[in-house]
Amino acid sequence: MGLDDFIDKAKDLADDVVDKVQVAAQSAADKAKDLVSDENIEAVAEKAKNIAPDSLDAKIDAAADKAQRLNDRFEGGTTQV
Questions:
Q1: pTM of the full predicted structure?
Q2: How far, in Å, CA of 64 to CA of 70, rounded?
Q3: Domain ranges of the chain
């Protein structure tokens, strides 16, 4: 095996690693998108309102609304608020 063969195999291995990392990253992103749904945000807000004092309900609702807007914009391909 010459140096060129070694370099070619190293490049192939690096390409395989990049492909596997991209697949893993996409899988993680898909799982995160499933967890951060408007329904889950609303469920968390409702649980927080059940635990927190009533005086914080409006702030919890506002935070949930903002999280839902961010989620909607993220799903649309932009992260601007």
A1: 0.55
A2: 10
A3: 33-81
